[in-house]
Amino acid sequence: MNPKVYKRDIIIETTAKVMVPLILVFGMYVMVGTESTGGGFQGGCILAGGFILHVTAFGTEKGRGLMPESWNTFFTSFGLYLYNGAGQLGIIFSLGAAQFLNYSAVWPVANLVGIATARGYLVAFMVSVGIGVTVMAAFVSQYFDLAWKEEEERGERE
Amino acid sequence: MGLLTVLLLVGLFVYVVEDVPAFGDYNSPANKYIKLFSIEADGLVASLDAGVVPAEIKNEIERIGFNKENNYPTLEEGEYVIERNSGVFAVDSGEGWDVLINEGEIYFNEPIKYYFIKEENGKLTVYRYNWPVRVIEKTEEETATMNSITSGLADYRGYDTMFEETVIFSGAVSVILLLRRRGRL
User: Fold this and answer.
1) Rounded to two decimals, what is the model's pTM?
2) Which residues in chain A touch residue B172, judged by CB atoms under 8 angstroms apart?
3) CB pair distance less than 8 Å for B142 and A104
4) pLDDT of A25-59, one tens digit each?
5) ipTM beyond 0.95?
6) Residues of A in contact with B180 (CB under 8 A)
């Protein structure tokens, strides 16, 4: 590892340490819920921004600890599966009567359990979190791929 | 040449902007309704008050394309409800009738606003309600979500959002395939 490339700076590292948890919490707040501002896409972008800030402060190798590649690959497709699963709930709960992504089929279950706003919660949690997780993992993965390429080219030159 | 292009663009802009309704106007055509056609009113008002759509209006609606071949619900006897509606088009000083049709959905099997018939100067004008009317008026009842933006994004237009997510996913996969170097980290 070239020491010129990653120069440690105590101010930047401390600022990143303080800010990253706050950014992640704010990203969660934007991502989850139907009545907040934003939604899955914006929340996922903010979460990805938190991870990217961590990496820019600590370098690619050390910064990778917060979001390992195996988790990242899992999250990229997990969000899509979550959304599709929420869509399939309509078919499952209505025993084939309702269409894919027809969340109205959740109403009988909601009546059974006694939660009137079950459909709203479904959209708020499963769908929004599905979008947010995919967007976050996609952006983080793209950032890491580009950063690695840069580092590799620099290593070849010197 | 550049000046000519700019002038042409300005002319086009003014021509387009003239037709755009005032911002935030709830009753503007783009937000609320589409005008379909006008018809002479003599003798038809009593029929509408009695809760029956006259044959002239029904035939004209089917002639312009809102018929069974195009998968629109038809105005057969007993399949629609007519309600007196006043004050919706307060800007146009109009009163009229809402034609509510049951579209036969599995859940929320209730008639929804479909056509609006307005009486004005001895003429009956038929409008078609736009989709945002349903979102504004029924979103809380149908989706248990207070925010009509969220229900529109994730509930009514679920396919749109799902495949937007798929686009981002495929972008990530493409970048992985193109740029990722194996054997590092």
Assistant:
1) 0.76
2) 76, 137-139, 141-142
3) yes
4) 999 999 887 777 778 899 999 999 999 999 888 88
5) no
6) 145, 148
